[in-house]
Amino acid sequence: MIDLGQNTSKMRDKVTAGLYFSLAFVLAIIAWYHYMLGHYQQILWPALSSPFILVLALIRLFQSNESRDITPYPLLVLLGLVVLNSGPLFDPLYRQWLYMVPVLTYFILPVRQASFSLLLFFSLFVFFAVEQINPLILIDLAINLSLFSGICFIFAYTQESQTQTLERLSGKDSLTGAFSANQLSKRLVAEVSRAKATRRPLSALLFTIHNIEDFTARQGEYKTRNLFIKVSQIMEEVGRTGDEIYRMSDNSFLLLLPNTSINGCIVLKERLIQQMEDHFELSAIARDLGLNPVTLQASETSNQFMERALADPDMRAHNAL
């Protein structure tokens, strides 16, 4: 799943919470409608699901951005139970509920997870409703579900592809907000030329988290993503105006420091280590950190400086052993 900027992510959370509220309200209206008409067998699942979905809407609205969103799957389970127990297949209104399932699923889940969830749901649906299906209804259902699911898949996949394209064009990492690695080489040429022209120092600080695979195996992918976000935030807090953060790989960042000597770079390194050790959630990785402070030499080109800046001294020492 493509990660969105913080403002966009908050807006999406509010829109999704609003969708949950609307769904809870509609189910409550349906339960009341069946009650007024005396369809008592069809009241149970809409009436039972409505308050639970309302709770999920409140959770989605007020949950922290750092916490994992647990609402999509319970919502889809509740909606699936409503759909599977709402009425006969020959009722067109009931089939419209089925057509809504792929729309909602692709909206609240990433494309891959949504596709697997829909496959599971429709497999269960066919298993439980096979006795009600006659050939004409089956053909109509298959055509419409294929149409709705296909359109939703194309739209969601296109949206993710466009977000990836925008990320490349903006030069920003969508998860952390740091500049992407392909922006560094162009920026470094300009900064090296400026440093030599003004005879001002230029430094860089490579920040590498070793054994990130072990951390992911222990804590899970979601915790790892949050770890990178917190690391980027702390680097931004430690850095000064004019300093730039680049995400060089999955587990490494580079802090580009104009007008900074090697002594200033080492001071920033120590401050960064201290911030990591003081932060409870990051203290566990303090022993796995690799930091490489370097300063531009008078005879170096931008490529030579970048090669030296990206050389992890801990890995060189490990290879030497």
Automatic annotation (TrEMBL):
<feature type="domain" description="GGDEF">
    <location>
        <begin position="200"/>
        <end position="321"/>
    </location>
</feature>
<feature type="transmembrane region" description="Helical">
    <location>
        <begin position="73"/>
        <end position="90"/>
    </location>
</feature>
<feature type="transmembrane region" description="Helical">
    <location>
        <begin position="43"/>
        <end position="61"/>
    </location>
</feature>
<dbReference type="InterPro" id="IPR043128">
    <property type="entry name" value="Rev_trsase/Diguanyl_cyclase"/>
</dbReference>
<keyword id="KW-1133">Transmembrane helix</keyword>
<dbReference type="InterPro" id="IPR029787">
    <property type="entry name" value="Nucleotide_cyclase"/>
</dbReference>
<dbReference type="InterPro" id="IPR000160">
    <property type="entry name" value="GGDEF_dom"/>
</dbReference>
<feature type="transmembrane region" description="Helical">
    <location>
        <begin position="137"/>
        <end position="157"/>
    </location>
</feature>
<keyword id="KW-0812">Transmembrane</keyword>
<feature type="transmembrane region" description="Helical">
    <location>
        <begin position="17"/>
        <end position="37"/>
    </location>
</feature>
<protein>
    <recommendedName>
        <fullName>GGDEF domain-containing protein</fullName>
    </recommendedName>
</protein>
<keyword id="KW-0472">Membrane</keyword>
<dbReference type="Pfam" id="PF00990">
    <property type="entry name" value="GGDEF"/>
</dbReference>
<feature type="transmembrane region" description="Helical">
    <location>
        <begin position="110"/>
        <end position="130"/>
    </location>
</feature>
